[in-house]
TrEMBL record:
Name of the molecule in the record: GpE family phage tail protein
Lineage of producing organism: Bacteria, Pseudomonadati, Pseudomonadota, Gammaproteobacteria, Lysobacterales
Protein source organism: Lysobacter arvi
InterPro entries according to UniProt: P2_GpE
Listed Pfam families: Phage_P2_GpE
Amino acid sequence: MADIAVVFHWEPAAMADLGVGELMEWRERARERCGAEK
């Protein structure tokens, strides 16, 4: 959640209703956007 919040500027409340799978997908998008390696 922290990676998503930093990259996309989302508050924790915006992610509260996301399932684990959705969080993992958004985390991967955040990783790609910031250019971090796995």
